[in-house]
Description:
By secondary structure, chain A is mostly helical. Chain A has helices at about 5-25, 30-50, 55-60, 60-85, 90-95, 100-130, 150-175, 185-210, 220-245, and strands spanning about 135-140, 145-150.
Amino acid sequence: MSASTRIPGLLRATWLLVRKDLLLEWRTRARANALFFFALATLLLFSFALGPDTTILRRAAGGTLWLAILLASVLALGESFRVEQENAALDGLRLAPADPQALFLAKALANGMLLLLLGVALLPVLGALAGLTLAPRIVMTLPVLTFPLSGLGAMALVLVLGCLAIAAPGTIYAAIASNARARDVLLPLLLFPLLIPALVAAAKATSLALEGDPMLQFGSWLGLLASFDLIYWSLGFALFPLVVED
Amino acid sequence: MSSLPLFATAAGRIQGGWEFVWAAYGLTWAALTLYAASLWARRPRKEP
Amino acid sequence: MLSVLALLLLVSGAWLGLAWAPPEREMGDVQRIMYVHLPAVWMGLLGVTLNFICSVVYLLPPLHLGKLIGPLRVLDELDADALAEASAEVGLFFGTLGLLLGSIWGRPTWGVFWTWDPRLTSMAILLVAYAGYLALRRFVDDAERRAAWSAVVGIIIAVDIPIIWFSVRWWNSLHQVQSSPRTVDPAMVLVLRWNAIAFLLLWLVFLSSRYVIAKSRRERELAPPALASEGAR
């Protein structure tokens, strides 16, 4: 295929696969519901473990939110390949004309969207549990320009970038783990150390979006998160074919 | 945390602490020996 | 093996070199822990580096270095996947040892067994990551898949190392920074180098031994079925 047909072809294949996955999710939305309640239960556990003092909960809110999302992601990611696994559909996908790279983009995007939905649903719950409000104004400092964001806008950015950060390496590791033994342990064991920088950045940025950012650190943390996303989406794109090919 | 300033001189040295030194070297030797033993035990045997 | 003998000589020589008392400084005798801690950490990092190189090499088409320069032919015959496995395990061993030694060193110097110092923290994350790498290798039975997937994971982890380093440094810069000892005394530098070389030789011995183990297992797994069942224990 010439270059001029390759990228549109890739995007189209990706779009079709994403649509398939999202349709599947919608039809079996019981799973997404269960995921939400699992994450909710996690938030409750954290609240009980950290104590009824809302000051502590408020300070820990950023970390708590992302830990809940991360723990739920392990289940979500594990499932995303199990469907294929159980029906040996992965082989079917592999034989189809679809690029493995389109497969990666589609899976990772679908997973990312699911996690984003989860994060959006969890935020008001966390807000209620910990008595949170969004900061009125966050100043975003990029290398070339500085502009103000509302607390809500800042939070939205963190959620999107953070969920993307989990989705890319998570998709690769899920593809690997789904074909290995002890897959339930292997996925989190591989994923968690890798995601520590993203967790740190997302949690910190979330705290800033909630409590305000007097020292103008928000841009730096977001920059770290964005770099992480860029690196791992590229790496995933390049390496995923090696994982699914025989 | 240590009460030593960053650029302490001869004054304010940590006294003794030999038990930590022994612990460190003992751990090192024990670990090296154990790992060497595990490598030895796992060596491939020639088929008869 | 001759290397083992040379090593024993060097390591015991190093130990004597320590009882030979390099002069103490602010830290007193506790300083001596550095002579095993730093080389252990360095060997851990060396293992990690080698694992990354092997992972990349495995995934690339064969390089045929022997065609460029004759003597490099020996590199062509190396089994990249077996070497990756060996370097990961040996690196994990030395890294863990180094981390524990750092912890022991920290108790009398800083008063605590653990701080969220960027170096210690990054090292700890790294070790957990490579433990995961080795777990992956153990849980995949097919030799070809194991090699390919390990290479992918090895690259992913290695790429994360600088990211981890920066993020942890940032994260902890909000708190205090621990002072680290400066080695200026030439006698101390000598002892440190002596030990470093001793550790390096040990690392090489362990690595080659572990490589042989990994390579023979791979050969058994990749052998044609008839031969494999003949040779199976």
